[in-house]
Amino acid sequence: MTPVLAVENLVVHFPARHGPPVRAVDEVSFAIAAHETLGLVGESGCGKSTVSNAVVGLVVPTGGSVRVAGVEIAGADGRTLREMRAKAQMVFQDPATSLNPRMTVGAAIGEPLLVRGIARGAALRERVASLLTEVGLRPEHATRYPHQFSGGQRQRIVIARALALRPALLVCDEPVSALDVSVRAQILNLLVELQASHAMACLFVSHDLAVVRHVCDRVAVMYLGHLAELAPRDALYTTPRHPYTRALLAAVPEPDPALQRAKLRVPLQGEIPSPAAPPPGCVFHTRCPIAVERCRREVPEWRCLGETMVACHRAGET
Amino acid sequence: MTSVPMSGSAITPALAVDDLTLAIGGVSVVDAVGFSIAPGEVMALVGESGCGKSLTAQAMLRLLPRQVKQAAGRVLLGGEDITALPERRMRRLRGRRISMIFQEPQAALDPLSPVGAQVREASGLARAASRDAVRRMLAEVGIADPERRIDQYPFELSGGMCQRVMIASALIGGPAVLVADEPTTALDVTIQAQILDLLRRLAAERGTAILLITHDMGVVADIAERVAVMYAGRIAEIGTTEAVFAAPRHPYTSLLLAAIPRLSDAPKSRLAVIEGSVPTPPEYGVGCRFAGRCPLADARCVAEQPPLRAMEGGHLSACWHAERVA
User: Lower Cβ count inside 10 Å, N or C end of chain B?
Assistant: First the structure.
């Protein structure tokens, strides 16, 4: 079966005014099947948002391939991209800036249907009403403007708009990061339900490892433009193979004082290097607690270790 | 000072707040908040946006926005009431007896001034704090190569490093109290772990009392010895972190804890949800402000404001049904 999304050797470099290009994404490969949610985690600047933007055609890849439902979109013409966008929709972090303040909620949700000539008039109003209900709002909300809603409600509106065309792939870039804890739970519950009921493939980008574990089936960890590890959820969280994954997991403060204080603390030292001048060899070696001479020279190959894919020379020995 | 929940020790608290009430145009946005912090102790003030935690923090240094007035209450710094001090004297206390750090370190630093100069300026003793003292302070907050960093500008430093600079300028005057308003919210998780370690060490080694404002229960669990949970301008519950997390005695705390995805829960399970949204100040009724969203609420909750009362395990809860909270 063709995966809904197949990314192969994706490379995205951004030219810099001075000096070498910023290597935002380097040789990233993964695939997502229908019904499946893949989490993409990493710290700021690791390239996770660039990957999600490249997947929906908002960023032009420097190299590699991105196929949505079998159709190549890297280097595709406008018409192909337009068709692709009906299949791949996106939800961004900040719902306040994702909605046009001068457009009613109904107009925003209905626009994709109208533009593509799928529905109009009474049929359109009916579709919008059912989408609003589906995301936990009421049909009469259609006539209101975004500023009349809370942050959580606005994110529901954004989700309704993304679902309007019944996409095969939903890309969520930090969809709950701007929300308060109690509202975040509502939106996560909604996303889990919708993904299952719509049988969508979902790419879920987040810096929050607990949130990703909650909603995803498989998880990919990125560091400085490279994939460090990709594994089924339970494997990644119980037997992380890459030292960076381990460090990330150790750094998440668990909301449980007993657990948290019993943790062995080995905070990662140092800062993330600049993606314009990534270190040679393994990009993580400058902060890696188990790096050896080989890691400074040789780029680790992306290899299989049980059900895990990992890029580390020392994975498997520790 | 009968209503101030004490930290349990007999020594004078580094910071004590009694019946603090802050109002915007006659509407109280922070209502009768009280707590105290012992030297070397880390206390967290936790809550969602709009609960009044940041205004409470700003009131500690009398740095409230102009439209917010302190309507009642006292703030005691090492036993001394600073509420009525003239601004001229207050200015002398800031940085020396109480300091503050903020969420966005890059925004809080002056982009046009080298970081070393900013740390020196914060010492309040323009020249007395020599380059040497500044360098030592930068080293103490974990800045590698302070001799080079001291002359650099904020844009040349990462977010985590800027937060260290801000902590250095907050501490160089040797304050007894540090107010930290979401100090790690803008930072990545591995950098957050470094900064929390630093704060923990400073409290232990320098005996600095830290009031930590946060929305992150994970950060509370990591670093705070005690925690006050705020909701709609009031303290819902206050106690040791262990007690509050193990056996919350306010339905809001209990639901909030259940709403957080954890590394230990069942994936894709339904998270607990608090129905509705936080009331705005004009919507505050006479009773419990959580009543409209509370599964345990009854007629009394709507009609009568529950006082903070002592529970088993030594913590205080402002809930008529505290004994029934699961």
Answer: C
